[in-house]
């Protein structure tokens, strides 16, 4: 089954969310056991289209990531509807004006929170800032 695009978080079933750092870990040959187990259990694997853009380089450099996309992966597009949802989610976070906002991290956090999914990341602090509980975060 190939990756499919979705403009919202799809069925809402809990599963896994991969941020850009996790996708880079996939490229490095990490998370193989986690992804295999998720596949066996039928857990949805979601990622932001923005995270994919941050990690994708094409060609042989993206071979492992390309293999992942051929599986049952939901790529949530940052289309107009989703971009508005992410923007409103960031506004509700009420950061200080000087706080650097990362749209892709916010999107991963929103997907994780909405679906009660584990999120895999290379920097858990970014996701905690967006209200993802520490118990839902896995560091790669």
Chart the SSEs and their pairings.
Blueprint: E1 4-6, E2 16-18, H1 20-27, H2 32-41, E3 45-48, H3 49-55, H4 63-69, E4 73-76, H5 80-93, H6 103-115, E5 118-121, H7 124-129, E6 137-139
Helix pairs in contact: 1-3, 1-4, 5-6
CATH fold-type name: Rossmann fold
Rough outline: globular
Share of β-strand residues:
15-25%
Radius of gyration: 14 Å
The CATH superfamily bears the name 5'-nuclease
Order of helices and strands: EEHHEHHEHHEHE
Mean pLDDT across the residues is 91
Count of helical segments?
A: 7
C-alpha termini separation: 25 Å
Strand elements, count: 6
Q: What is the CATH architecture annotation? A: 3-Layer(aba) Sandwich
Helix percentage range: 40-55%
Name the CATH class: Alpha Beta
Indicate the structural class.
alpha/beta
The main β sheet shows up as:
6 strands, parallel
Would you give an account of this structure?
By secondary structure, this protein is α/β, with parallel strands linked by helices. It has a single domain, classed as Rossmann fold (3-Layer(aba) Sandwich), CATH 3.40.50. 46% of the residues lie in helices and 15% in strands. It has helices at 20-27, 32-41, 49-55, 63-69, 80-93, 103-115, 124-129, and strands at 4-6, 16-18, 45-48, 73-76, 118-121, 137-139. Strands 1-4-3-2-5-6 form a six-stranded parallel β-sheet. Helix 1 packs across helix 3 and helix 1 (20-27) packs across helix 4 (63-69). It starts with a strand and ends with a strand. The mean pLDDT is 91.
Question: Which features does this protein show?
Answer:
about 140 residues; alpha/beta; Rossmann fold; about 15% strand
